[in-house]
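Field log, afternoon session.

UNIT: design team B
ACTIVITY: writing a sequence onto a fixed backbone
BACKBONE:
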């Protein structure tokens, strides 16, 4: 653990940006002005590809460190931590050189599997499904389209670039869908399905492992010589911890490009995993169970752009008052559901509806989707969970914060820090317990009643949308 007078350098490996920022050593709060960002432009193709240029990504991240160095922020650093997107994969040759760009979670290319395995038992053991999101389907596809020798994810290759060691954490490995959650080791059946041995994947190191910067980077950033580099934490797990949602009585709802509701809990004696939920690892002792949603901040950004709305357009809108109902399947659904992208629907439109009504209906639809996951987690953990809200979407919209609170029909706490991923990675690595520290919201009875009254109609129309999408597919 760092001394409280030392600072933490956090590297945040996102899909739309790579960032480096400096945090305080006592509560992992960002140091004002000590942030550098490299914007990322994913490449999308008509074949379903969604990739990142590996060299450009890594060089952009290193440039962020150069910027912090030039501004005097790489002094008195006691630890280097990483938060990273889950699910990415890169095919490598026998010398460790990349044969492919970074294939992201949004990429739809893979092989179809018809393995003779008990998928429900597989899901209970790995927390994942045999879905294209995971390496069990990505690796066979990559093997069929080339001759890779090894495979790694983006955070594994960033860590190797910095330290010279290609290793992964139990948290990142769990997001590949090939980890036995109970043992923290690669799952034999998952490896058989993928068609590889464990030695073709990065070695899994314990949470307490640390590396150090290679000689090249020690010369480039002399203030980081000897500073321990901790293994990366998956962004979903890091975001939960960073919001203050790190116990089994608290659900963290985070809204960024996508959204998720999750609960962190001990891996030992974990409740049996329902088919509809996923489970990954936070660290050696904790797991995170939850549900993710493909329409969130991206939905808000799309609609405000298309409808040319101002940021405060919803300031006076009543929650649940619009007749319009939106089923937010614009980007489809996450597994195990099979709704494809392009399935978003509006019901009940009339000529007196405004652009604000359409936005309000869409954000309420997204809130109801998150509420589905929250209610499953309530049932799983046997209580009405406390709720913490965090992420850029939460920070950007006061109306959406109130909408979620009314939809959940319970008080919520808003995390005061926007940098929840970096903050959580520092907390996991250094054993910190950050507090949300933000405002407390109480649901308004009239809003709760309006949302509850329209919920049955929403559920019925949602089922129609699901059926229609399956017919189209």
């Amino acid at each position: 653990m760092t001394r409280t007078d030392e600072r933490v350098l956090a590297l945040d490996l996102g899909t739309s940006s790579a960032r480096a920022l400096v945090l305080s050593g006592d509560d992992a709060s960002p140091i004002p002005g000590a942030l550098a960002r490299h914007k990322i432009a994913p490449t999308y193709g008509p074949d379903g590809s969604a990739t990142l240029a590996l060299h450009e990504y890594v060089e952009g991240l290193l440039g962020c460190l150069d910027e912090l160095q030039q501004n005097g922020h790489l002094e008195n650093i006691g630890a280097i931590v990483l938060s990273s997107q889950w699910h990415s994969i890169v095919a490598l040759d026998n010398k460790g050189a990349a044969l492919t760009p970074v294939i992201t979670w949004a990429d739809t290319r893979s092989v179809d599997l018809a393995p003779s395995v008990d998928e429900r038992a597989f899901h209970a053991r790995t927390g994942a499904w045999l879905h294209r999101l995971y390496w069990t389907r990505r690796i066979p596809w990559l093997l069929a389209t080339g001759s890779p020798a090894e495979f790694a994810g983006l955070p594994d290759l960033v860590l190797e670039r910095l330290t010279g060691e290609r290793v992964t954490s139990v948290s990142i490995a769990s997001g590949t869908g090939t980890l036995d959650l109970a043992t923290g080791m690669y799952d034999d059946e998952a490896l058989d399905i993928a068609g590889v041995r464990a030695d073709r994947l990065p070695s899994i190191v314990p949470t307490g492992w640390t590396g150090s910067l290679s000689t090249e980077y020690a010369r480039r950033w002399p203030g980081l010589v000897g500073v321990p580099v901790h293994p990366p934490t998956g962004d979903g797990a890091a975001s939960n911890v960073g919001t203050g949602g790190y116990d089994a009585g608290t659900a963290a709802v985070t809204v960024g490009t996508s959204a998720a509701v999750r609960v962190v809990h001990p891996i030992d004696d974990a409740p049996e995993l329902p088919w509809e939920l996923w489970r990954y690892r936070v660290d050696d002792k904790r797991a995170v169970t939850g549900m993710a949603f493909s329409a969130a901040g991206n939905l808000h950004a799309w609609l405000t752009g298309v409808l040319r709305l101002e940021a405060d357009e919803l300031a006076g809108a009543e929650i649940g008052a619009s007749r319009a109902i939106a089923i937010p399947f614009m980007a489809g659904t996450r597994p195990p559901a099979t709704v494809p992208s392009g399935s978003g629907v509006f019901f009940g439109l009339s000529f007196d509806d405004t652009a604000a009504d359409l936005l309000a209906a869409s954000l309420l639809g997204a809130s109801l989707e998150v509420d589905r996951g929250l209610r499953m987690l309530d049932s799983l953990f046997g209580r009405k969970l406390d709720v913490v809200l965090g992420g850029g979407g939460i920070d950007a919209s006061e109306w959406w914060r109130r909408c979620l609170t009314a939809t959940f029909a319970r008080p919520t706490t808003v995390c005061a820090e926007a940098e929840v991923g970096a903050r959580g990675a520092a907390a996991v690595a250094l054993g910190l317990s950050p507090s949300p520290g933000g405002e407390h919201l109480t649901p308004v009875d009239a809003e709760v009643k309006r949302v509850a009254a329209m919920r049955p109609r929403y559920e019925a129309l949602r089922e129609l949308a699901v059926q229609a999408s399956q017919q189209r597919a």
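LOG NOTE: The chain has a mean pLDDT of 94.
NEXT ACTIVITY: expression trials, pending approval
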